[in-house]
Amino acid sequence: MTLFFALLGFAFVASGTPGPNNLMLLASGANFGLKRTLPHMFGISLGHSFMVFVIGLGLAQAFQRLPLLQTTMILVSMTYMLWLAWKIAHSAPPKQGEAAGKPFTFLQAAAFQWVNPKAVIMAISAQTNYALGETWMAALLVGVGFMMVNFPAIFLWAWMGTELRRFLSNPRRLTIFNWSMALLLIASMVPVLFH
To answer: What Cα–Cα distance (Å) separates residue 139 from each residue in 7, 127, 178?
Structure first.
């Protein structure tokens, strides 16, 4: 039971620290509000928990045995995150009475977990350090542990974005914010290059 509580602590800290998911939620909350960001939040929480489970079933061993698979995944994810950063930086401010652009859908956010280097590393670390054995039940328990704490941790980022909306009602400030979020998203990829 002590190991499970340690997993919950790791999952909360890993889920709550800055990274691609949280920076995108902050930007989504600021640009679209909390209600329109909910599918994005649920996609991250459930999608990442599912990925943690699948990695526990053996994907982590595949990465260790096939380094080219991991390198390819990193290159694909870096390319995708650069595209996302460009989209965030070029988000148009909403016009009076309308919301420009669309937030991530549930499926987009869930699929994004598979190309998010921080999410993959968190999943591998969790399964390596906190799984009680190599059974499907042990892998599931780690995935459920992440699901229990992930949503509250990421909710804070989307909420902070919504609180910024009043400040960002000025189109110039919103543009500066979006560019800052894009640059931070790119910066969040740097540790992966040296991992």
So the answer is: 12, 7, 37
Please, how many CA atoms are within 13 Å of residue 42, restricted to the half-sphere of its CB? 9
Tokens of 131: 């799984």
132 φ/ψ angles, rounded to the nearest 5 degrees: -90, 75
Whether 143 and 49 have beta carbons less than 8 Å apart is answered as: yes
Q: Tell me the C-alpha distance between 94 and 92, whole Å.
A: 6
Task: Please state, in angstroms and as integers, the Cα–Cα distance from residue 107 to each residue in 46, 69, 127, following that order.
Answer: 10, 23, 24
Only one residue has tokens 């910024």, namely 164
Q: Tokens in use for 117?
A: 């280097």
8 Å CB contact between 32 and 26 = no
Note the Cα 84 to chain centre separation in Å.
12
Instruction: For residue range 101-133, list pLDDT tens digits in order.
Output: 789 999 999 999 998 888 888 888 888 888 877
Tell me the backbone φ, ψ of residue 75, rounded to 5 degrees.
-65, -45
Burial class for 35, CB neighbours closer than 10 Å (0-12, 13-18, 19+): exposed
Closest to 21 (Cα-Cα) out of 146, 149, 185? 185
- Reported in sequence order, the residue ranges of the chain that DSSP labels E, i.e. its strands, are none
Instruction: Give the burial string for 139-163 (b: 16+ CB within 10 Å, else e).
Output: bbbbbebbbbbbbebbbebbbebbe
Flag whether the pTM goes above 0.85. Answer: no
